[in-house]
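Summary for the funding panel

The consortium committed to producing paired sequence-structure records for every protein in the target list. Below we show the first two records in order, beginning with the earlier of the two.
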Amino acid sequence: MPRRSPDWRLRAVKSATKPPEDALERALYSLLKTKETDNEPVAYAAEIYTRESEREIMQAWLLAGATDGQIQENLSVPQDATQAYRELFFDVTAFRDRLDMLSWVGDYHKVHGGTPYGARLLQTAMTRGVDTLRWLFGPNNADVDPNLVLQNAMSDAYYRGKSNRDYALSSKEAGMAHNFMNTAVKIATQLSKEKPPDANALVIKLRYRDMTESVEGVADKADLMH
């Protein structure tokens, strides 16, 4: 399958010798040729694209898989403008797989002419997702669930620890891995103490014990725990 750039439709419109049949492409064609268009979402999207900092932020949200509604909620960009942007300027469906997407992000600064800041932002979008972008750019970035913080810290420490396990036991990297794993275990222990038992898991455990009432009865009572 041939690889395409996410701005392939913009390139096609730029090289067109006559107005395209597609309505969005025709509106962009008019904007490029005459600097005017009666399609407000296309004009809005084009303005975002021409501003480098705005373009890189929008690309990050789209790469992270944000919905049009999430972008409107956090960046105040109208949904029809985001839809036009997706179609004309940054079509994430052009990537044939996630590996292709990661490769494009890796080449962003040196090959595609993006800024170092934009490259880091895209990497953050790919590895941290919409929640981190909401914290960086959203209006309500202080609302963080403490349990989510613990879970993310545990996961990060756990996988950092596993990534250095192949080093020699006496190496600095092995010592760091040991510290990360200890941190992950401590957080996991804390979470297991604070998180209430899952009712369904409790029913499964009780299924294999002598009981004076049916599992269905236990399940009904388990609902009262929440």
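The next record, for a separate protein in the list, is shown here:
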Amino acid sequence: MDEAVEYLLAGDPAIRWQTLRDLRDADHEVVAAERARVAEEGWGARLLAEQSADGQWDGGVYRPGWVPEDRPMFDAWSATHFSLQQLVDCGVDPADPRVVAAIDRVEAHVRWEHDGEPYFDGETEPCINGVALTVATYFGRTGSTIAATLLDGQLPDGGWNCWDEDGTSAASLHSTICALEGLRDAYRAGNEDPRLPAALTRGEEVLLERRLLFRKTDDTLIDPRFAMTSYPVRWFYDALRALDYFRRADVHDERLADAVELLRTKQLPDGRFRYENRHEGPVLFDMAGEHEGAPSRWVTLRALRVLRWWDAG
């Protein structure tokens, strides 16, 4: 593991500060000093520099402004929503004046393509709203309207589904993990909606009763991609994303064991983990040139801290 940690510490400030905090237990002052660099150099600084005066990234909110009208479902990751998600993942200090100014611009000017809703009020799809709620709470915006929309849209089986039209659909793991992350962050940030604790428990059961990966009906793998490591996660579900959710929630359930052991089998002899599944689509810039089949700092960081948490019991 020491070799893998040194590999992480040779990376971008976004990787280094989280490694110091989560894998090295470094002093608070050391962690804070490294975190402060995220807005000054590397990926975090570059993301901040890509924002326009109107608060947007690449001319759009969910999709960039240049997506052709005849390709409305085209996936691109360069617009405002996913840029904000990436800033959260980088762990940029929300109190940094440059960050505050960027988020103020979002709050003042950015409106969803869906129906002109303010960004921090969310729109309708739970996979979108879950990520937007995580963004809102991270940057000190309440996101209470988004949380209420998610709670209102929880399905009878406890999950969420972006394709549901009448409240009768089965849960989608993609939508459910996004919703859970956002609602868990809102709960941690002090949202007092009395429905939240039960909603989180019901949503977590959707994942746990499938052991994160397997059908309830015949115990087969739901989707081979769910067993693959990826980053950035965007709106996609995979077992490592779910494990990282339960780590952050500190829900240590025995039904996670199979997914943990699967993750452990992917570790290379030097402690690193490979990047297995790229979610295709244009990006603002490439992070460190990582590609499928090669070791990845993001995947290694996320996997190592999951295993450390799990093994600590």
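Regarding this second record: The CA atoms of residues 126 and 303 lie 26 Å apart. The chain has 13 helices and no strands.
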